[in-house]
Specification:
alpha+beta; Dna Ligase, domain 1; nine-stranded antiparallel beta sheet; four-stranded antiparallel beta sheet; 7 helices; 33% strand; globular
C-alpha cells in the first residue's frame, strides 16, 4: 500500500479517514476525461518521492505535460498549513504520538525546507490529528513508527495527505528536541518495549540542507563553521559525496526557549550554510 498512492487513498476512503476527493487515472486519456474537475494535483501511483512524480494540473491545457501513467488525481485543497504526526505502535497495541510539527515547503522543489516543532495549531486540531494518526496505525496493525502528513484547510478541517512507515524527515528534530527520538521509539516499538516519552524538551526548527541551484559535483559546505559555532545548533550531514540542485544533503536542528527565537536562528542557518560543488 505504501508503494501505491492509489491504494492509500482507497484505504482512507474505506476506513472513513478524512482525505481530499480524488479520481484514479490510468493514462493521459483518462486524465482528460476529468477535465470538468480541474484544478487538481496529479500524483504518480508508484515511484514518486521527495516532490517527484507530483504535478499541478490547473486546466485542460496542462494535460499535454501530465504524466501518462497510473495516477491519483486529487482535488486541489485550499489549505492553511501542512502538518505531520509521527505515531508509534508496538506489538502489544500501545500507541503514542509525537506532538504535531508544521512544515514549510520550498515552492520550486516541492520539498520541506523548514519544520517547526511544535506546530502553531489549536489544542482541538492537535487532538484530532493524534486521533487520526492512532486510528490509521491501529487499522494497519503496524508495528514501528508511522509518519502521517495532513493538510489543515482554511475551514480548520484535517485531511490526510500521505503516510510513510519509517523514520521520517518530519521527525528528525526529535533527536535533540524531544525526550525520545523517533529512532529510539521505532526500536522500542519493534522490540515490543514500553514506548518512550514524546514530549518536547525545547521548541525547535529543522532546516533541510538542499543542494544549491546551478551546482552539481563533489559537495562542499560553505558557512559550516559559523553554524557549528551557534549555541543549540546541531548539524547532521548525510555523507553524500555529490550534490545536485535540491538534493537532500543533511539537516540542521536549532533549539531555543521559544519558537520565534528558533525561527530567527534557522533563518541565519538558511542564509549562511550552502551546499555547493
Amino acid at each position: 500500500m505504501i508503494q501505491d498512492k492509489g491504494l492509500q487513498k482507497k484505504f482512507y476512503s474505506d476506513n472513513n479517514i478524512p482525505t481530499a476527493a480524488y479520481f484514479l487515472s490510468e493514462n493521459k486519456t483518462e486524465t482528460l476525461s476529468h477535465k470538468a474537475d480541474f484544478p487538481f494535483m496529479q500524483k504518480l501511483r508508484k515511484g514518486g518521492y521527495d516532490g517527484k512524480g507530483v504535478m499541478k494540473l490547473a486546466s485542460e491545457t496542462d494535460i499535454e505535460k501530465s504524466f501518462d501513467a497510473p495516477s491519483v488525481l486529487e482535488k486541489l485543497i485550499d489549505f492553511d498549513k501542512e502538518i505531520s504526526v509521527i505515531v508509534a505502535r508496538n506489538k502489544s497495541g500501545e500507541t503514542k504520538c509525537f506532538p504535531p510539527v508544521e512544515m514549510e515547503f520550498n515552492a520550486e522543489a516541492n520539498l520541506v525546507e523548514f519544520l517547526f516543532s511544535p506546530a502553531s495549531i489549536s489544542e482541538k486540531i492537535k487532538t484530532e490529528a493524534n486521533e487520526i494518526a492512532i486510528k490509521i496505525a491501529d487499522k494497519l496493525g503496524i508495528v514501528g513508527i508511522l509518519a502521517i502528513e495532513m493538510f489543515i484547510t482554511k475551514k480548520d478541517e484535517l485531511l490526510v495527505n500521505e503516510m510513510a512507515p519509517r523514520p521520517h524527515n518530519s521527525g528528525h528534530q526529535t533527536i535533540e528536541g524531544n525526550f525520545t527520538s523517533q529512532y529510539a521509539q521505532h526500536l522500542r516499538a519493534i522490540l515490543n518495549l514500553p514506548l518512550g516519552d514524546t514530549k518536547i524538551i525545547l521548541p525547535s526548527v529543522m532546516v533541510n540542507l538542499l543542494g544549491e541551484k546551478n551546482y552539481e559535483g563533489n559537495a562542499k559546505y560553505e558557512g559550516l563553521e559559523e553554524v557549528l559555532a551557534m549555541e543549540n545548533s546541531y548539524v547532521h550531514l548525510y555523507g553524500k559525496k555529490t550534490t545536485k540542485p535540491f538534493r537532500k544533503m543533511g539537516h540542521v536542528t536549532i533549539l531555543a526557549e521559544n519558537i520565534e527565537k528558533a525561527k530567527q536562528k534557522a533563518k541565519f542557518v538558511k542564509e549562511k550554510l550552502k551546499v555547493i560543488a
